[in-house]
Amino acid sequence: MSGKLAQSHLDWIHLSLLAALLAAAAGCGLRNQSAQAAIADSQRQPEANSLVDSNAGYDVDEVQGSSYVEAGGIQIEASNFRVEGDYFWADLCYDRPSQADWLLGTSRLELPDAAINSFALELIDYRTGSTSVGQRCDKVSFPIEKTTKLDSFRIVVPQLEISWPDRQDCDAAQIELDANNSGIAIRCVAEEGYSGYEVDAKPESLSDEELARQIQAAFQKSVGVREGPWVLEGSLP
Q1: Are 147 and 86 in contact (CB under 8 A)?
Q2: What's the CA gap between 168 and 180, in Å, rounded?
Q3: For residue range 146-171, what is the model confidence (pLDDT) as tens digits?
């Protein structure tokens, strides 16, 4: 009887040791998992900090936000707002009304205390859109000062325009000028090394700047215009 008790006692000791070893192993596993999680977090943290630091000031790119608007059956999306050097940039994707070479008209960056015309336009790519001919995407820049605040702004696209042909159609432009009772008369000239138009008549009170604006608008309307405006709101803290 005493031998059986001794054996039972030994069996209990073995079971106790086995339980202790299993508990220790589990504890090591949990500590290893915690250590690995801590290492992973420490590796991710610098990446998050670098994103914050990269957007401090206007010396480096800043990217944020998007805006979408529809007018006259044409959708325009503005995204990827950023500052590069002395320029504010935005990517604008818009429905093409037809297969023609449609471009953005001169856009404006409207701020609480200023309005800035677009400076440059560069093609990004073409993509599918809400129309059968898809969309064109351009990146558009606006010159700004280092002190310009962009926490609230609007990008205004007054119209879409078909790019001008190599040869201007003065007869079509004259029809537009006459329809507006402008009092302006033009004719096309083509000489060696030069092709353009000359003004034969204009109201005396009309400034050269306004004269040029009306003639350009007449040419553009004769080629093709889709009126807006499209107003897209955004912010870049």
Answers
A1: no
A2: 19
A3: 999 999 999 999 999 999 887 788 99
Output the CA angle 155-158-162, nearest 5 degrees.
Answer: 120
* Token digits of residue 109: 């960056």
Tens of pLDDT, residues 25-52: 444 443 444 444 333 333 333 322 222 2
Q: pTM value?
A: 0.62
Distance CA 204, CA 8 (A): 121
Q: Are the beta carbons of 94 and 135 closer than 8 angstroms?
A: yes
Query: Which residues of the chain carry a pLDDT beneath 70?
Result: 1-65, 130
Q: CB-side exposure of 194: number of CA atoms within 13 Å?
A: 6
Over its C-alpha atoms, the chain yields an Rg (Å, rounded) of: 34
Q: Using an 8 Å Cβ cutoff, are 177 and 186 in contact?
A: yes
Same-domain pairing of 175 and 155: no
CA atoms lying within 13 Å on the CB side of residue 24:
6
CATH assignment at residue 93:
2.60.40.1630
Domain match, 94 and 49 both: no
Tracing tokens 């898809």 back to the chain, one arrives at 134
Q: Which amino acid is at 102?
A: W
